[in-house]
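S.,

As promised, the GMT run. Input:
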Amino acid sequence: MKIGITCYPTYGGSGVVATELGLELAERGHEIHFISYAQPIRLTGPHPNIHYHEVEVSRYPLFDYPPYDLALATRMAEVSELYDLDLLHVHYAIPHSVSALLARQMLAAKPRGRKLPFVTTLHGTDITLVGLDRSYLPITRFSIEQSDGVTAVSSYLRERTMRELDVRNQIQVIYNFVNCDVYVHDPEAKHRAEYAPNGERILVHLSNFRPVKRVTDTIEIFDRVRKKIPAKLLLIGDGPDRSRAEWLAVQKGIHDDVLFLGKQDVIHEKLALADVLLLPSESESFGLAALEGMACRVVPIATRVGGVPEVVEHGVSGFLADVGDVDTMARYAIELLSDENRLKEMAQAARTVAQSRFCASRIIPQYEDFYRRVLERSS
Ligand code: GMT
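Predicted complex:
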């Protein structure tokens, strides 16, 4: 198939999933065209089946708000025509599904009207925050209902979308995935000594540092752990709450043990060094970071929110606690890091879940089937 993929190209779970999906599909022989305002961050190196088309947004003094969604729709229609795409797959409803809808209409209105179905994948805050904002709700609902196929990354997100947006079309759950050959434990842990020279335990947090991720809770948890166990905290990513987290680490006098690594291109190498991953988010429709950690045998300690319980089984492949309950999350970490056998057992259970339920080799065929059904319906 020839598939156009649109996503937010910067750091963030939906862009990561979209890019990894494109890479996996390209490996399976499909022709993939990314259409976005910048090259997706995980799209490194050339691939014969992958093309990237940049969306240029003109800036005129009159435009206080440059109309990206219109430029995107135009580029989607152009690329679809030029490369004879079979369908568009947009990640994150706002504004991508609206642009795809316009592109579909533009092509249908051509003299020899051409069909261009589009699939929308809902990721999380496009529904839970942005989509419920009154200024976006009607158009989000409309573009979801107009989509030729809709998927959500968890059952939680599907139920919530159906309940709160009251959409009438079917939403198929296709879980996020991880490439289990790339995301693996590093048995030699070559670089571990760079971060933990005295054999300290390593905890890791990976996010875009937005308020919803509660990064300062990560510092609170680590502070409690470090009082009991020699440990280091690796923070991967960047975003609005980074400086609050840095200040808190300084205030608590633990900044030498809290290592802000910033945005990283090769995440799995860093994740694979850790023992425990902290994900104390306020809301999380899936929790891709937890899954990526689990594939690397890193045990997640997360909040019991959204779709996270669909990924992490409490007490088996990780631990779950209430939002803000940093004491409990710290206690889980201390108990686990003090018991080598339990740590190994849970690390293996986490890896097994990642491999058996969320491996790319299981999930990508679900997308392929989904595309085929959409194409059949719209032919
Ligand atoms: O909402 C975000 O934090 C951004 C969003 C994204 O587009 O990066 O993340 C969401 O999508 C990820 C990939 O499907 C999920 O793993 C995250 O759980 C989800 N985030 C939230 O629901 C807060």
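The mean pLDDT is 94. The chain is about 45% helix and 15% strand.

- D.
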